[in-house]
Structures are given as structure tokens and as C-alpha cells.
């Protein structure tokens, strides 16, 4: 049955009733504070060699973690839906402080784990209460060895609230309050960053150019603030790494993503070897648009004569239908997400830019945030976020500590879902022109992952190199950004975006440093998975679920070896995976001769 008249505003009331003034939320947060005090006492007295005491603490840490996640996710939703919600911002600040105490608990507990000898540790992990958590506990024990003492790491966590995370929160606040003037249909409007960002992919070259000029000017006006925020975020990280005697700025992001430097290097090398194909696409697109070279805003510009507009209801039904072909369970889950109003998609001012999916582990629900304006790209984003939501859904019955999967494999599930919908859109196109437009929309995402994301990675790597020697000026940040874009796009563009470092939220996220390469990993990893799904159809569904359920308790190399029989440190897997994108470009070039 087709879905109709769907709400584009999410329902948060069943999580905590009352929004930022919720008494239920206030009581919940108070109980978390009490829980932390009680658990600290339990950790203090815990004998790490006693498997029963250790297992009891692990279970309590798991319960506390899920409760803190629940409240933080809820408040994050409140701030996202209304950046002017001062009460929610204040609660987020309180949760940040509580989070620092929580992280200090983990640091204290991890130090306890290091007091156990290696042989005794192996024996402990064989007990029923600890065995299910063996991967996570081994990981945390190893990381503890590489960090500072408990007192020093606790001090870092405490100082991070106002000296690290606060810069990220302030950036969110400033961006959310930005109001950018833009003339449309003879009327002067004040648009949010997210609303104006949607104009950058308009059918009209003139609209794109005006939007880009307004966008660039707005960020230029904020460049001094953004420079301060970015420099101090990086300075905090580098100072912490220096005290830990870590010699690579990539050590932490690689650890978080449970992948090796060899895998990362191999992935980028294979991409670089295939970039010439995508340069041909960019050149052909420039020719079609009557340009000598594409400008920054032309890369994502539609090539059709009319913009395809899709209603929210149409998008929902299309996504559900396409998921059903390969993953009936994911299709049914998505129907539930739409019907129960788990998605905030309304196109309005006051929302923060971008999109995300967040989970509520105790309620066993998820919420999706985006701004839907009816473009094919919006439909893809919606499918992408539903992929995230489904990933969490299949993890719900696992112990909470085993649900902590890294960003790169999280992007695998979302991108896999996006691929299902994008391919189906191309295959079901009603006209040759529509087919070409949708095919090109797919290729745009490949270019984003192989070139735009690569530019971000190059910029951030080089920025940290220079930041380690001192503050990096606005002019130098602009230079680094443009140099990275030129290299990543193989000089194929005639205009770049020097202030991209200021406008991209991902550079200011403190939870995950280097919020870039995991996207590209997820895209290519999912391409390999998608190829298998196309061969096996819905028979692959249970295998896919098994793979997703292991994402919180394996390295990516172990995951690929177990479920795909592949070695990610070798180029063969990546070369096969990128062929799907290469074939899209070859078809595009053939259709546009």
C-alpha cells in the first residue's frame, strides 16, 4: 500500500516528552549523574583479576553508555531542528560536562585492564560474562597502553569540554544563526546555510553563480571566526597527541575506524590510478554546458533541461519499493520509519545544515534529519540516511558495547542503500533524457567521493602539518584548500572554492577527527557488497545482516576477510569495486557522444 500525506516533521515525544523543557529528560540526566558516581566507586574497588567483578563493571558501563547516548541523541535532535533553542543548547553543554566524566570513567577502567598480565587476560576473556565483549575490551586495553596515565587523560577530558568541544559547539551555533540574503523571483529572501546550499545545484547557471557568490561572501565574513575555531581545534588535538608521544595525526582516526594505514594508502592509490576516467566525465560535462571548464558549482549542476522535482511521498514510496528487491527487511523497516514520523525533512529556516541519522538504543528507534526540497539528490540523501538507520536496527539486539561501529563501516550501509535507489532510478527512467540525468547524478557522487573527499583529506593532512608549527592564517588556509582541490580534481576545474574549509561542518566535528576518508571507504566497500547483492538478489540479505552485525566487533580487514574473502590491503578489491563507477562514466560518455 502506497504511503500518502506523510509528515515531514519528526516525532520526539515518545523519547522524552516536552522538548528542551522536559521534566522527564531532566530527571533522566540527573539519574545519569548519580549512575556515574556509583560506577566510579565500583571501578575504584574492582579487582580486575576477578572475572565476576570485572563482568559486573562491564555491564554497568554498557548500561551507562546507552543511557548517555539516549539523552545526547535527543538533545542533538532538538538543537538541529531549531538552532535558536537556547534551553537545548544549555542542556547540550551540561551533557558535554557529564560526557567528560563518563570518558574519565572509561580511562580509569581501561587503566585497570592494563594491570592484568597478558596470560591472565586471555583466561579472563573466556568467561561467559566477558567473552561477548572480548573484541571491544581487547581494543580498549590496547589503546590504554598507548595513552597517558588516568589522571592525565582525565584532565584532558575535563579541559576538552571548554577547550575543545566548545569550539565545535560554537561553530554550530554561529552557522545555524547565519542568515544569507538572496534574491529569488524578484523577492529578497533570508536563507539558512542549508537552504542556500541547495541553490548551488540549481538548473540555472545564473542562479548557481549568484548563490555561490552570496555563499562565498557569507563565509568570507565569518573567516576570522572559522580560522580561530579550526586552529584551536587542531591545536588541542596536536597538543594531546604530542603528550601521548603519537607521531602521526592519522593514528587516532585510523584507530577509531579500525583500519590500517596500508588499507587507507591502497584505497587512495587505486582511486588516483582511475581519476583520468572521471576527468573525461568532467570535460564532457563542461562541453555539454557550453563551458571551457567546469566551475565549482557546475560539478553538481544538473544537465537536464528541467529540474526533476519529487514529492516527499513519492520519494518515500520509491525508496521502499527499491529496497524490497534486495532487502525486504530493510524495506519494511523504512516503511515503519516513514509511518512513525522518525524523519525530520521539512524545508524551513532555523534548522542546522546537512543531514544525519542518530539512534536511541534504549527506545530501539532512530531519527533522521535532513532538508528535503524534492531534488534527486535529496532522494539519495534520504535513502542514505535510511541505510544508517537500518544498520542500527539490525544491531539493536546486540550488547550495547558491541554496537559501536566505526564511521567507515557506518557509511557502507548508508551508501549501499543509496546505490540501490540510484541504480533503480536510472533503470526505471521514463525517457532517455531522464535516464541520462539520473545516471549523471550517480556519477556526481563518485566524483564527490573520489575528488571532493580526497581534496578534504589532502587539505586536512597538510593543514595539520603546518598547524604543528604554529597558527595557520586565513590566507594560508585558502591557499591550502585551493591547492588540495586542484590536485584532487586533476586541474579539471576553472574555478575552485577557497573558503570550503570554513563552510564544511565536517572539519569542525570533534568526535571523529578526519571526517572525510571514511566516506570514500564506505562508498567503495559498499560497491563491492552491492556487486554481490546484484548477483545473489534477496538471498544475500541474511549475509548482509550478518556482516552489519559484526561491524562493531571486528577491524575492517577482519570484516572483509570473514564475509567477503577479500584482503583490503591489496589493490584487487578496490580495483573491482571502482569498476562500477567507471562503467557509469563509460556509459555516460557513450550516451553523450
Automatic annotation (TrEMBL):
Gene3D superfamilies: Oligoendopeptidase f, C-terminal domain, Oligopeptidase f, N-terminal domain
SUPFAM superfamilies reported for this sequence: Metalloproteases ('zincins'), catalytic domain (SSF55486)
Family according to the record: Belongs to the peptidase M3 family.
Residue span(s) of domain Peptidase M3A/M3B catalytic: 201-579
Key words, A-Z: Hydrolase, Metal-binding, Metalloprotease, Protease, Zinc
Source organism (scientific name): Pseudalkalibacillus berkeleyi
Cofactor note: Binds 1 zinc ion.
Protein name: M3 family oligoendopeptidase
Cofactor entry: Zn(2+)
